[in-house]
# Entry
Amino acid sequence: MNNSFEDDLKSKYWEKFKAIFNTNILPQLSEIEKLRKKKIALFFIISLLPVFAIVAYGCLLLSKIKSADLVLIMLLCFALLFYFPFIPWIYTLVSKNYMKKTKKMIANLFAQAFGALDRIDINFNEIKYAALLRKSELINNFEFIEIDDLYAGNYESTDYTFSDTRFEVYPPRGVPVTVYSGIVLHIKTTKPFLGHTKILEKNKFAYNPKKTIFALILFVIIIPILALGIKEDPYMPFLFWKVNVYYVFGFLFIWALVEILIKYIKTKLKSINISEKTINKNFALTSSNKEEAKSLINKEFFGKLFELRKIYHTKSIRCAFFEDNIIIIIGTPKDIFEFGTLFQSAYNAESYKTYFKEIYPIFRLLHCLKNTSSISEYLK
# Structure
């Protein structure tokens, strides 16, 4: 796709976007601004009013210092220290509620600039979607997904969805932990792929809390206990038998090496070397059908991946082609597709420009895939 055509494509979407903003969004900005101010007032009342009350009461006690009052003042100080960490959490809750209501008012209106596109709020099966993403094998170490924004549309007879998604796990205790987050683009193809082809960024591994916990238990608890026991008796009871501890360590070490070697051989057997040095340095391409993968992926497609990395300021781009699905994941910790913040005026045009800049590259990528000879045959 040459630069002049890309400029024309962007200009076409931008003109529609501006027209919708001037016609449909501007009349609602006063209502959105009122909502924003109400939410700010609510945030200050919930978070800061208790702080002011405690400080005021403490100052009153300081004016009449007694031994009993000093104890009470110390308790008030501890109460403040305990309460302060909850203020960011309160802000997040209030801000999310404001964003949810704002998106309900204007997101679908803006979506009209990009053709047959709708923002989905309800009746979406996240469990089924998570199963599809797990099948892609792009993110392996997650237990469930959390979707902030989901859009579904049809681009030149091709169905697609994209979302701001967090991949999360439940730790043994506490709140869910995000192991990966970003934009997930799912494209439904009309022709199934023969193999399962994956593109992953090199030298990037998702955090695995289960392995981390196991490593901590192994190196912090088990190994030190065994090491201390060796001094007393090298033949410690192990699984109800008297086994030399050194043999146990040796067996575990050899077993770990064999596991690593098997995984390495499997990866190498499926690996496809890409001649371009830059591509080979940044991406790893594996497939169960090498012939299909070689005809499917070309320089032009990798060029678009590099552009996406630059646009979204990330090095984490992952793709999968399998069955009748194309899945592209753009890793970013940022909240995408937002209309400003709680402390940003609803009349600030920059927040709407940012929204356009975040959503337009997805349509440019769709257009590129539809016009890439090696992939377009699957999207007819």
About this structure: The chain has 13 helices and ten strands. Strands lie at 116-119, 144-155, 158-169, 177-188, 197-201, 237-238, 241-242, 283-287, 317-322, 325-331. Residues 215 and 324 are 39 Å apart (CA to CA). Confidence is low (pLDDT under 50) at residues 236-243.
